[in-house]
Here is the input.
Amino acid sequence: MVKLDSVSFSYDKPSSDNAPRAVREVLKNLSLEISEGETIAVMGASGSGKTTLIKLLLGLIKPDSGTVDGMGTKRVSAVFQEDRLLPWYSAKENVALVFSGRTKSERERAALELLAELELDAADKPIRELSGGMRRRVAIARALAYGGDLLLLDEPLKGLDAELKARVAQSIKRRFSTILLITHDEDEVKLFDCRRVYRI
Amino acid sequence: MASALKKTLKAILVAAFWLAVWQTAAYFVGSELLLPTPFSVIKTLFKLIGTHKFRISAANTLIRVVAGFTLGLFAGTLLGCLTAASKLLALLLSPLRSIIKATPVTSFIVLLLLYLSPVITPVAVSVLMVIPIAWTNVAKGITETDADLLEMAKVFRLGRLKTVRSIYIPSVLPHFLTAATTGFGFAWKSCVAAEVIAMSKLSIGIGLYESKLYLETPELFAWTAAIIIISMLLEAVLVKLIERLKKW
Here is the structure.
C-alpha cells in the first residue's frame, strides 16, 4: 500500500530582488492511500497541486512536512501532464527506449505491438510530425512498455476522442491493476472504474 | 532548377559588380604596387596555384588548421562538459575562459613563440581560439537540456549512458555544430596570422609575408584570394558534413 500522510508542499515563488521570496503552498495536509489492485482518482482545479502530487510520488521532490510511504521498492510508471517525448526520435524509438534487457529488434517489435494496440499507425514518424492525440498515445505506450507495480496518470487521455478514450483506458487497465489517475474529467473517472475519488 | 540558375546568375552579377568596382578603383589609383587590377591578381593566382611551393604551403597550413581546430573542439567540448557537470569546476575554470576570450590573438602568438616552434605555434593558437567557442556552446547546450526530459529519464530509469546518448547528445548537437562552424573560421584566420608572425616555413602565412616584404602586391592579393577560396571550400565541406551528421 502507498500512503501519503499529512503531506504539505510549497514552491518558492520567484519575486523581485528587493522583496522577500514569496511562498506558494500547493499541497496542505494531504492524506491518501492507494491499495494494491485499486484505481483511485484525484481531481482538483488548476494549480491545486495535482502534478506536484505525482512528483512527490515519483520521488522527484520531497514534502515539506508529512510522509510518503510504500514507494521505496515499487517500480512506478507514469504518463506526465506534458508528453515528455524525445522529439528527435520516432514514436517507436520513444517507446522502445524504456524496454530493458532485450535486443534492439525485440524492443522495437514490442514497441510496435503496443503502438498498434493503441491504434497508432505512424510508429516510424518523428514525434514532431505527430498530432497532440498521437503523441499522447505514444506517451501512454511508453508508460505501458516500462510496466511496474503502480501507474501514475496525469490527464492521460487529453486530446483523444470519446471512443478512443474508452479503448485506450481498457488497454491501460489490462496492464496495470494499481493506478492513480489525475484528471479534470468525471467521465475519465468512470472509464477507469476508480474506487475512490480524492478532491484537492 | 530554375531557382538554382537564378541564384547562380545573381551571384555572378554581384561578383561582376565588385570586380568592376575594383577595376575602376585600380584604374584611378594607377599603381600595381598600391592596388593591382583584378586581372593581374587572377593571373598571379593561377600562376601561384601551379607552383610546388603553393601546394606545399597550402597543405602545411591546412594540416595545422585542421589539427588546431580538431584539438580545440575536443578540448572545448571536454571543458564544456566538465563545467556544466560541476559548479566547482565551473567556478575554478571560468576565469581561464574569460582570459582566453579577452586576450588578443597576437599576444598569444608572441607568447607561445617563447615556448613553441614556429611550426607548432599556429596549431596552438588555433586550439586556443576554438576552445572558448566550443566550451561556451557545449556548456550552454548541456545546461539548457530540457529538465522535463531529464526527469522522464530518471522516472523510467534510463541510466546514465542511455540518458547521455538519447537526451544530452541530441540536445547539445545543435550548439556543438554552431561551435564547429564558427570555430573553424577562427582557427583558419588565427593560424594564418600566427604563421605570418612566427614566419613558419612553407606556409600560406609566410607566402603572404614574403609578398609584402618584396612589395609583390599582386602576389599578396593572390595569396589572400587563395586563403579566402580555400576557407570557403573547407567551410562548404564542413557544412555538408554537419548536414549529414544532423540527418544521422
Observations:
- The first helix of chain A runs from residue 50 to 57.
- The first strand of chain A starts at residue 2 and ends at 13.
- The domain at 1-14+22-71+178-200 of chain A is CATH 3.40.50.300 (Rossmann fold).
- Chain A touches chain B through 16 residues (CB under 8 Å).
